[in-house]
Amino acid sequence: MSEKERNEEAANLPERQGRERLAAPVKRTGMFGGSTGGDTSGFGGLLVRGSAPESSRRPFTDPDDPRTADFDRVADDLEAALGDDAGAVERVEVAYGELTFHVRREALLELVRVLRDEPALRYELCTGVAGVHYPDDTGRELHAVYHFRSISHNSEIRVETTCPDADPHVPSIVSVYPTNDWHEREAWDFFGIVFDGHPSLTRIQMPDDWHGHPQRKDYPLGGIPVEYRGATVPPPDERRSYT
User: What tens digit of pLDDT does each residue of 25-40 get?
Assistant: First the structure.
């Protein structure tokens, strides 16, 4: 393939991936699995499609996708830096131009320290952690997803770890990346992931006495009536549905 053809292929990559995503089988409809009700948020029409492959095989670098140019190099350097602890990485996933290392939660803190301190890696910046809730992923219902950026090597990766509903604990990485402080508080607030070792794991947006974690899939869609300038706005599940 010529350089011109590679450039054209790279330019058309987002469109091609979009078509592939739309062609994937639909797993369910609606944000919360409900098919009736008065939800006017628009999430009732959401189509949840099949997820990305569970694991990826080498080579991780796709010559037709410039975003993946250093994926094999990063995987090799991380494996070498971990040495005997390389088993901390359960699997590696390449999807949508992103490289994700799925890590055992008990090994998370040491792994991110390696990401920061190893000269070949030098991921100086963690841009935060996001919680995800998969009620059907038995034993791994809660996921914590971290994004790391290496300014030295102009590289970005993702690290993902899981914990069960019955034991929702993940080590805090604030001791390594202090800027993750408020991100971990938000993931605790909205998803109920307990970050062990966090200096002050308190709610950041919901009131301190709030019950439950409102971004979990099993959280009730309804809410409390809101009074605004004399008018009352009912909870979403009590509103009139326009279909």
Answer: 666 676 655 555 556 6
